[in-house]
Design brief:
This protein is α/β, with parallel strands linked by helices. The chain is built from 9 helices and 18 strands. The chain has 2 domains: 221 residues, P-loop containing nucleotide triphosphate hydrolases (Rossmann fold); 120 residues, abc- transporter (atp binding component) like domain (Coagulation Factor XIII, Chain A, domain 1). It comes from Rubellicoccus peritrichatus.
Length: 399
Amino acid sequence: MRNAIIEAKNLSKSYRLGYVGAGSLREEMERFWRSFRNTEKKASGSKNDVWALKDVSFEINPGEITGIIGSNGAGKSTLLKILSRVTEPTSGEATIRGRTASLLEVGTGFHPELSGRDNAFLSGSIMGMTNNEIRSKFDEIVAFAEIEKFIDTPVKRYSSGMYVRLAFAVAAHLDPEILFVDEVLAVGDIQFQRKCIEKMRDLTRSGKTILFVSHNLYTLQTLCTRGIFLRNGKIENDGNMADVLSYYRASIGAKAESDSNSDLKGSSALEITEWKLNGKSERLVTANDVFALDINWTLNVKEATTVYFGISIRTAEGLWLCGLSTFLEKKPTMLTPGVHTSGIHLPAIDLPSGSYFIQMSVMDEQGLASHVNIATAGVINVTRRSVFMGMIGLPHQWS
């Protein structure tokens, strides 16, 4: 049995709300004395303490590529910073057995006054490499980053995209045994993101270990073998990446459904009272079946008014799949006071299994101001009879 290359035991990290560093030694000593006198109170926690991580434990074996997922504020970046030794945990410990490289938020790791060349050599020296070792990798780093013209320019003059290109190239090519990558790759253009993903695949094939934080669930699904789902600073699910993603999508859908039940409202003049999917309150549809959405509205005004209807479908991670509106199609509707039903019918919806957010809107006759705009009016859960890769299925026949 292989020894774990990363071990996290009861990692916790708390931050004190409103705490700002003191301006003098005297003030710091006064703060220290107050905290010393209140040791018992501090041990039990303060109402101003926020726990970014709480009792997080796991082991990662050599060669694993692990995706860390969770909503903003779940503790993903804090976890990587602790494992990268950027910050210390409040309690618990992390054991790292191998040479590490980190790609965290833009601006971390490089000296702004030094050139790209100097920063590459500095990073390698910090990792324990000799100048000859770094020099043997240098041309490969520059070629990968595609910034040959600017390699001798101070990095403070780099754009965020150039910075990320060089930072990833350095981190991936200086022979790390463990690579920590945060959402920072989203800064780069799509071609470079694909290039980075392929490089990470190559690293894992050669036995390297990667921890990857991302909100791009499709990338995580295709790249990672293992997933860890963090919620409110704690591990809620840990296992096969596909299983963890299914659990994560279901939890997002359940929360959105719960939130939307109390959000069916609009302005005082116009509000949603109910909506149904295929004539039922149940929000479940089988991929490639008829998709019919009916929405009941109440117009609380004395006179008739002209409106336009809109609907959009988004994935759990916020990707906008489709947006339709009667304004774009130049089909105004005159509503009289009272209750009305609007509907949209699609012959088929062919999406991967999962939960999808429905956004509804009612616009005025200019198509600008929204009487109603509900970002998560509901959630549709799609099941499938067949499997495909990507975001949509296409009618096809093999020959």
